[in-house]
Amino acid sequence: MSSPAHGEHVAVIAGARLTGPGRTDPFGTDPVDVHLDGGTVVDIAPAGALPKRGVVLDAAGGWLLPGLWDHHVHTVQWALTARRVDLEGISSAAEAAAVMGRSQTGQDGRRIGSGFRDALWPDRPSLELLDATTGDTPTYLINSDVHSVWLNSAALRREEMSSADGVLREEPAFEISRRLNALDPATADSAVTEAMSAAAARGVVGIVDLDMAWNAESWDRRLAQGFDAVRVSFGVYAGMLDRAIEAGLQTGDAIDPGGLVRMGPFKVITDGSLGTRTAACSHHYPGVETDFGVMTVPPDVLVDLMRRATGRGIACAVHAIGDVANSHALDAFAMTGAIGTIEHAQLVAHADIPRFARLGVGASVQPSHAVDDRDMAEEFWAGQTAVGYPLRELVDAGANLLLGSDAPVAHLDPWTTMSDAVFRTRDEREPWRPHQRISAAVALAGSTAGGSETGSAIEPGAVADLVVVDRDPLVAATPSALRATAVGATLLAGRVTHIG
Q1: 8-state DSSP, 67
Q2: Which of 139, 332, 334, 440 lies at 20 to 30 Å from 33 by C-alpha?
Q3: CB-side exposure of 82: number of CA atoms within 13 Å?
Q4: Which is it for strands 85-86 and 111-116: parallel, antiparallel or unpaired?
């Protein structure tokens, strides 16, 4: 593959092969030249049939796909994981405490780790255990699901909070994450630029940023510094809804002349998570007959918030993991006429699955959660009668799937996301609930801007957000083969954001 420089605008992608659902072109697997102008596709012709002008990217027989989107990212938190102690794979509270005790103290005098999953640990987090290994250094361990944080006594004193076992859950945990993420802008922006450049290297051209901050200001600052790695649709939360309304921001409004960064949805978190055992469910959690999880936003408050956002032209993205939360979220969409998505939809009542399509509510789902959570789901949702991680059933019912990672909960890598959706396993284990697998074609379409409803055809008139890869993802035979897809080039409106 010839190598145009990073930032150059490509006029011709030569010798590429097309793939993906929704195609109407006649080329099959024959190589084609794709001609671009003004950031759009203007012609597709057999290789060599038309003269080549301008900068040429030689695809050398690689496969050309539409650029990929991750529809759920907590951008700063994801970017900062590389600078925190990695707790993924830790098998006990004692091990986690020991790892943090051995870790270096940061420049701000704190130790911060992230990525642990404690639901199936043989021991429980405690204040005494963490204090014994970490002493007087403020220490924070962020659960992979971000819905709980384990702190030592020094950290609790620093934050002026209290907890008998050192664990903060739901809103107090979110507040800790907000504080830990509130670094000086230069540090945070550098981490974000690095993370988004890495995303572009995996074929990503856009993200939905759901950081718990006033993102309009952050992205305006990054744009002024020259950020141009991916498109961004940023969300706002309840505490910032009035500010967005006062600023006159509506979903889809650009904050820069080039339209790279746009106002996205109003995000509201209505229940907890499986990992923290707080997702709102219709059947109680094992061992505690009064524990059905939590609804963190009452249904009537949810309706009022969504009605307010909808009246001001702002779409809604409703976090709902348990089946009770999903039912309330769908009810709220029906009552308000809101447009938007349900985020996660991990446990959905049978009767609610067809309502997604009927109400026009997108299912913004994270297939990697089904693979990562399978053991927790078998343990804690064994008594639930609703459908767990119902990807195939949502597709069959006509719902529009929009795939994402929920980074940092899972890694921002669309090829892992698609692999987990298609194969429902990542190792030598049998696929988990294989009847919920979706086709590679649906997974690919769900990983593009419009989701599974729009297909992924490349045709004249389309914006030239494109990626060249080394294999056809529709015929990958194994999870590892799909995950190993190599990206040769990523283009954003014809501009090179990654070259392999």
Answers
A1: P
A2: 440
A3: 16
A4: parallel
Q: Would you call 481 exposed, middle or buried from its count of C-beta atoms within 10 A (0-12, 13-18, 19+)?
A: middle
- Dihedral sign (CA 303, 390, 366, 374): positive
Could you tell me which of 412, 414, 439 has the C-alpha nearest to residue 424?
Answer: 439
Predicted pLDDT at 2: 60
Residue 485 phi, psi (nearest 5):
-50, 130
The ranges of the chain with pLDDT < 70 are: 1-2
The predicted pLDDT at position 455 comes to: 78
Residue 22 has what pLDDT?
78
H or E stretch covering 113: strand 111-116
Q: What is the pLDDT of residues 87-126, one digit of tens each?
A: 999 999 999 999 999 999 998 899 999 999 999 999 999 9
Residue 23 CB: number of other CB atoms within 10 A?
15
Task: Give the Cα separation of 262 and 408 in Å (integer).
Answer: 22
Q: In what side-by-side order are the strands of the sheet with 139-143?
A: 85-86, 111-116, 139-143, 148-151, 167-169
* Three-class DSSP category at 481: helix
Task: Enter the pTM of the model.
Answer: 0.96
Place of tokens 């640990």: 121
Nearest Cα to 186, choosing from 235, 234, 225? 225
What pLDDT score does 456 carry? 76
For the stretch 461-498, pLDDT in tens is 999 999 999 999 999 999 999 999 999 999 999 999 99
Question: Cα dist. 434→170, 215, 387, 389, 446 in Å?
Answer: 32, 38, 13, 11, 19
d(CA 2, CA 468): 12
* DSSP 8-state class, residue 364: E
